[in-house]
Design goal:
This protein has a seven-stranded mixed beta sheet with strand order 6-16-11-12-10-15-7, with no helix packed on it. Strands 1-3-4-5-2 form a five-stranded mixed beta sheet. By secondary structure, the chain is of the alpha+beta class. Helix 8 (about 220-230) packs across helix 15 (about 405-415). The protein has three domains: about 1-140, no CATH class; about 150-295 and about 400-480, no CATH class; about 300-395, no CATH class. The chain has 17 helices and 23 strands. The two termini are about 45 Å apart. Strand 3 and strand 4 form a beta hairpin. It is globular.
Length: about 475
């Protein structure tokens, strides 16, 4: 009976595929209201994040026929017509998409797309639909407005790629046999990574712009050019070509941001970089920042995936990994500093709530009945997490950054295979400047990627690598092990 009812329902949906639908007033419930973060899309729609707004609707798909119907024809709610806007990669996976008021979307379309139209994309050969939707949805990412951003002080250059020779498990595409062999592997070292001058930002951060996304790592490439010019006064090393073949004078044009081709997702649909810049200013486009590097990097948590791939652990090694968690569980009921740490009432904790602020000013509140009750619940939660291998360790979540000195050698000195500052098997991370060896991991864990590397920290490296990220070598296959920017 259920199968027959579903079949008849699908037949009815198919018969109504050309109809324009309307949202029923009886299903507009408070529990269906969602909160959204500030983004370029909400800023363009002049949405107030502290009040209810019906400019955009997130649609959950249950029947593909209904979805096809409202994607093609739109739908009505409160007398306003809504049309399909886009769906991010995450929304596509969870069968959701975003619809926006047609009138509002038409008024801000060029602002969101930097003047790039669907007709122009199709006239130039089209694009993969899912990729187009994901790139269009960049404006819906949670970001803070980059207030002083100047598009005229930016360029886009080709990515830095080389072949790195190393030991790999080579899979034969015909027989699917696996042979461990020494092979050259093509690697795009700057995949998803560009550079920003320390004058603009001394921290690494992620950027979102129309059709553009990725990491901007703080690096003094202007100092690199000046030192190169000083070494060879007869040569001006600051002249580079952008991805369209146009030459730029980095110092003369006061370039503050160097994007890479891998960050500019729809570059082939613009005639040149100047067209993008002109449209950016003409249509009032903006740039956004997110995931800005913290001043103090909090410790990360161990997890069961990482534990399971350490299949030759001894009991003593396991006790060493659990030491911090065991000490916290032992002291959480008696040691004031441990209690404050568990509550998040420490100087290092960012975005403290009012209760945490009060605990820092007056720690005697820990003896309050409410505090003791919360502490008991926190201890139970800590025990549960520890049993699931979510353990406190001296680990950090950091940005992975390629050897940008090698990138500058390639970009400004024309070296095809630059030496850089790091050799094969070396990384640099100033957060762990007192440690010689690091285990570089990724989350989520993919297979068995414990990339053990030497932490090299000499004066020359410290002079150039000035952020809290972890810098990797262009002679290393670590980017394939950890799947950078994948």
């Amino acid at each position: 009976m259920i199968a027959d009812t579903k079949a008849s329902l699908k037949d009815e949906i198919a018969n109504n595929i050309g109809e324009t639908r309307a949202v029923r007033s009886d299903i507009k419930l408070d529990r269906l209201v969602v909160s959204v973060f500030d983004s370029n899309l909400t800023r363009s729609l002049l949405m107030n994040e502290n009040s209810l707004n019906d400019e955009l609707i997130i649609v959950k798909v249950y029947y593909f026929g209904v979805a096809e119907n409202i994607i093609k024809n739109g739908f009505y709610m409160n007398g306003n017509k809504y049309v399909f806007f886009s769906a991010s990669a995450g929304q596509i996976r969870t069968k959701k998409f975003v619809a926006v008021k047609e009138e509002s979307l038409n008024s801000i379309w060029n602002t969101l797309t930097c003047g790039l139209t669907i007709d122009k994309i199709n006239s130039l050969g089209g694009v993969n639909t899912n990729k187009y939707l994901a790139y269009l949805s960049l404006c819906n990412s949670a970001t803070d407005l980059w207030k002083d951003f100047n598009i005229d002080r930016c360029i886009v250059v080709d990515d830095f790629s080389t072949e790195v020779t190393g030991m790999v498990d080579f899979i034969d595409e015909k027989t699917y046999t696996i042979n461990r062999t020494l092979k050259p592997v093509p690697i795009t070292h700057t995949d998803g990574c560009g550079m920003v001058l320390p004058l603009i930002s001394k921290k690494n951060f992620m950027v979102r712009m129309p059709w553009m996304k990725g990491l901007l790592a703080s690096f003094p490439y202007d100092k690199f050019i000046r030192e190169a010019d000083k070494g060879e006064p007869a040569v001006n090393h600051g002249f580079v070509k952008d991805i369209y073949g146009i030459e730029h004078d980095i110092l003369g044009e006061k370039i503050e941001v160097i994007f890479t081709k891998s960050q500019f997702k729809m570059w082939k649909y613009f005639k040149n970089w100047e067209e993008y810049q002109e449209n950016f200013k003409k249509y009032g486009c903006s740039a956004g920042k997110c995931n800005i590097e913290d001043d103090f990097v909090q410790n990360a948590k161990f997890n069961y995936q990482i534990m399971q791939t350490l299949n030759d652990l001894t009991d003593d090694e396991l006790k060493s990994i659990c030491e911090r968690a065991n000490n916290d569980l032992k002291n959480v009921s008696s040691d004031r500093n441990t209690m404050l740490k568990v509550f998040g009432a420490t100087k290092e904790s960012s975005n403290k709530n009012s209760f945490q602020e009060c605990l820092m000013i007056y720690p005697e509140l820990l003896q309050d009945v409410y505090s003791r009750s919360v502490l008991r619940d926190l201890k139970k939660s800590m025990e549960k997490e520890a049993r699931a291998a979510r353990l406190d360790i001296a680990g950090k979540y950091l940005f992975l950054i390629p050897d940008l000195y090698a990138f500058c050698e390639h970009l400004f000195l024309g070296e095809e295979n630059p030496n850089g500052l790091l050799e094969n098997g070396e990384v640099y991370c100033r957060v762990y400047s007192n440690l010689d060896k690091l285990d570089c991991l990724r989350s989520p864990h993919l297979y068995r990627e414990h990339a053990i590397r030497r932490n090299k920290a000499d004066n020359e490296i410290k002079r150039w690598f000035i952020t809290n990220g972890i810098y990797t070598s262009c002679h290393d296959l670590i980017s394939k092990i950890l799947q950078f920017d994948k």
